[in-house]
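subagent[fold] <- orchestrator: predict structure for attached chain, return tokens only, no commentary.
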Amino acid sequence: MKKLTKNLKKITALYMAVVLVFVTFLLGGCNKNEKKPPTVRLSLWCSSENINMVKQLLEDFQEQYKSEAVFNIILSEEDEITCKDTVLANPKNAADVFMFASDQFEDLYRAGALLPVSFETDRVIEENGGKTSSAVTTFMRYDKLYAFPATAGNGYFLYYNKNYFTEEDVKSLDRILEVAAQNNKKFSMDFKSGWYIYSFFKGAGLNVELNDNKLTNSCDWNSRTNSITGVDVTQAMLDIASHKGFLSCGDEDFIKDVRNGDIIAGVNGAWNAKTVKESFGDGYAATKLPEYSVGGQSVQMSSFMGYKAVGVNAYTGNEEWAMKLARFITNEESQLVRFENIGDCPSNVNAMASEAVKSDPAVSALAKQSKYSYLQDVAETFWTPAYTFGTIIAAGNPDGTNLQELLDDMVEQIERIPEEKPQ
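subagent[fold] -> orchestrator:
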């Protein structure tokens, strides 16, 4: 009996060992057959000044989805201002995901370069103010959303150093120029940009806008019959350009002269808020654009305003993940990161309602200026003629060209039918 029991124990032990080996084999086989997360390759374009911020957003994106994919994301520099032209030059080789300004949307849409938003579409619309919000309608066609809204208030306003100006001073451009000249300083604005000189014409009741065909402009900046004529506006601009307290300059020189103390007030946008704040210190302030003198009147300067959005390339090889990436870098948290790093005003309503955003002087100035702001919606033929005209005015009309002639030439070019681009 003892011998039988001993043999049974041996058999049982042997059986258990075999079972253990078999189970180990099965488990090992399962581990070998477990699916590894797929490798996802994407490309993303952003402007050079945003590279470091976007790198952090990409790290956060990959962390959030690390259990679903292994990512290989190529980040390259492409300015938002030139993005449309670069995309349309070769859409198939453009980035999977890219940011662009709202005035580029129509051309990108017409060229079929954008995929309709297919990830969390309803939430995206709701979070950016709903279907009636201009942040959403700007990027919609036939009830489809074609880009993820990323920023609002892509406009301009007045920065000023309150160590030189009172709140009353900055209501009048005449007074701003006077104070600047008295202190051997400058008030700055870029007269060579149609984006900025629009403020003088629109404020005086003259307009430029995109026609219903979405290809050509209507412009009455050369009007001889308005209560304030085009010549009145042009003469007022010449008077400003010749003032001792005025400097026409673009972004690069604006930043340089703000930092060195030469500029104490200027028309610019929220993207330079951080630099202006650091330079003006406790004098940092911002408000709506001032009134200016024209045709014997004082009128409120208007402004263009716009949005920025992130689009997904219609030729992307990975729509699902391109959509997820575009959504991530434009969600509420990412918009707040953009605001904190470069001062871009959010389009997301929750981000806009945060205390940090509401208490920011630049955002507050945009809100004040919004009553006098109009969506930037012009055809491409606007920009070069406006630049040429503004350059001549900034230089003081050195050839003494008749002002009506200058205006007529500009408007003719603004309203022309654009040449078809080769496919």
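orchestrator: received. Logging for downstream: Residues 2-33 form the longest helix (32 residues). The two ends are 96 Å apart (CA to CA).
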